[in-house]
Design a protein that fits this description.
This protein has about 300 residues and is an alpha/beta fold. The protein is built from 12 helices and 10 strands.
Length: about 300
């Protein structure tokens, strides 16, 4: 029976991938660090995931984790929650760590390597993008069968209080003018694409740009929230020029990257998804459905 290794298994996307795989009856191994939240590890085990301790910074642990595995899916990144400058950061984890994972996969003759990356941001230069693009290059040259997923803006991140979008208090930070369309995508849908990519001919040695079923501007999304909640939002506009100044002034790679990502949101990112949704048989989450979920009392 094939076994799939998920690296980043306790994260938002990684745990959803584990859930979907086990729901399909797949044999799943999840890499967890010794510092991982015990509750998150317990939840993985409750799904039926075999958890093994390891770290992308420790090549020997990756060799052990890859033994008996047929495919690897990695969503791992130091940003934002496990970021420790000089210890667990964009250099040690996102670049060197994922490179270690590629080498371990090669050594263990893994049949497919699925890598969760970020969109191509052509006019922006920042540490996270440089690390992701370099890993993509190394993966393409590795000889492994690869699938690179480049999801657009996650609804659960960019339409949440973490970045100033606060539906509970009817407030929202708007980057730029808020008029450029974005193909917002749900974590659940990115996980669907990762799972569907396993052994799918269209995913072989492919880069998949992923978005939701519709492209809406941030102001469009605000209107939908207002209609659904019955409350007018208080908006705070953050000019693109201010974001440029913020990025230029930042000295920490994570802060530089976060400022650049806000500039990306301000510029918009529409993606035509009809063909990909049909090819991979993914049932997409609409922004309206996400809004209903957010506004539904727990």
């Amino acid at each position: 029976m094939s076994r799939i290794l998920v690296v980043g298994a306790t994260g938002m996307l990684g745990s959803e991938i584990c859930h979907q795989l086990t729901a399909l009856g797949k044999s799943v191994r999840g890499l967890v660090r010794d510092s991982s939240d015990p509750l998150k590890v317990s939840r993985l085990q409750a799904f039926g995931v075999e958890t093994v301790q390891g770290d992308v910074r420790d090549r020997a642990s990756l060799n052990r984790a890859c033994q008996g595995v047929t495919a690897v899916i990695t969503t791992v990144s130091a940003m934002p929650f496990s970021y420790q400058p000089g210890v667990n950061d964009l250099q040690t984890a996102d670049l060197n760590g994922v490179t270690n994972l590629i080498e371990a996969a090669k050594a263990n003759q893994i049949s497919q390597f699925i890598y969760a990356s970020i969109p191509a941001m052509i006019n922006l230069d920042f540490p996270l993008q440089r690390a992701k693009r370099e890993v993509e290059r190394r993966l393409k040259e590795s000889g492994l069968v690869y699938t690179i997923l480049r999801p657009s803006c996650f609804m659960e991140v960019w339409l949440s209080p973490a970045v100033g979008f606060d539906p509970a208090h009817a407030k929202a930070a708007i980057y730029g003018m808020g008029q450029n369309p974005i193909s917002w995508i749900a974590v659940h849908d990115v996980a669907q694409f990762a799972v569907a990519s396993l052994d799918h001919p269209a995913a072989k040695n492919a880069i998949l740009d992923l978005g939701g079923p519709e492209a809406l501007s941030p102001l469009d999304v605000v209107k939908l929230f207002e209609q659904a909640s019955g409350h007018s939002f208080e908006l705070q506009f953050v000019p693109k020029e201010a974001l440029e100044v913020q990025q230029a002034a930042a000295t920490d790679p994570m802060q530089q990257s976060f400022s650049a990502l806000m500039r990306f949101v301000a510029s918009g990112n529409p993606i035509e998804m009809s063909a990909a949704l049909q090819t991979f048989a993914v049932q997409p989450t609409t922004v309206e459905a996400y809004i209903r979920h957010v506004l539904t009392p727990a």
